[in-house]
Amino acid sequence: MDDRTIIAWTAQNDQPAVSVLFGRRFAITANGACVDAEPFVLQQDLEYYPEARLGPRTGYIRPSLLQRDLDLYPFRERTDLVIQGCARNPRKLRDLQVDLVVRGSAVRFNQTLHVTGDRWIERGPAGLRLSEPEPFEEMPLRYDKAYGGTDEMALAADPDRDEARLIYDTVGEDEDREISEYSYPRNPAGKGYVIDPESASGTPWPNLEFSDESLRLSRIAAPLTEWGARPYPAGFDWFPHAWFPRSAFFGEMPATADRQVPKAELKLGILPADLRKKSLFNRPKLPFAQGAHPRLWQHRLRGDEQIQVSAIGKSGAPIELTLPRLAPQVDLRLPGQRGVRLPAELDLVLITGDDQRVTLLWRATHLLERNTLGSDWKTQTSYTIGWRSQ
To answer: Is 197 inside any structural domain?
Structure first.
């Protein structure tokens, strides 16, 4: 039997609620159909990519990259769409595009990644210039290949700052070497982030960029407080909890030049304009559960969408699939209450290109008029999941 669980939690306005979480795992066939594969298991722990990553210039340790977020969030306002894999081509290229297209009865959107081989900023006779991209056959679609990182040269030039000593004394050497005030808040694991213009020469350029938001060599360096105007890290993978904007729901926002929330997060509708005026207790909390790239949790998917991702299949073939058009319902009976039938919402679509799999996570939520659940309510609760097609 596939894994499932029920969670009691408190919704907005202190209203008690329970949510049933469950999912299924499918194999993607050659014709794009989804057929049941391995049993689904709820993800109860965070998983990180195993590779150790040293910074390219001073040995600075890049932060760990999230490989799998938790499934145990009792509510997601929208559907997380996460895609993992590598951009591939049967012969070496210097650049290619990865196109994501989503089409459904209620949702239509697309995103394009521009992928280039390794290149660096060089100092030429006329000033800074970019080296030619190195040819590649495969490029991981991870955030260490996207814009971001730490200005390691600026950090090394200021090793005795008071804040560095405070961080070191609080969290220890390993954590202190993973993130600093010289790290890009949206992606401290990436490449291309420069504070001091003297650091620019020799800096590696991002391999992944959104087609509509490219880094400009002429604007490669900017003061710390102007990080909000920097390009968004490009990718389709999980966004770690400690990165902005997820970190803003439970922590302080890094300082900005105008002391305002960056325009990118306002445009996406992720953060309120008055975030800085809200105490940590009064800030919205539900969006913290959204673990996909901020561009990829802007919609509620229904489960009937056609999804195409170019260049991440075998030998660079596209992955094309149609979600299985399921509309599950949950029949729930809590102790001392009448049974209710709840529609389930699709909270997660996780596509893994290397093994041609898609994992779907649903959630059904029941709001209670008052908290009447006893300490042993789970043992007295029954629920069944009914699978029906749309």
So the answer is: yes
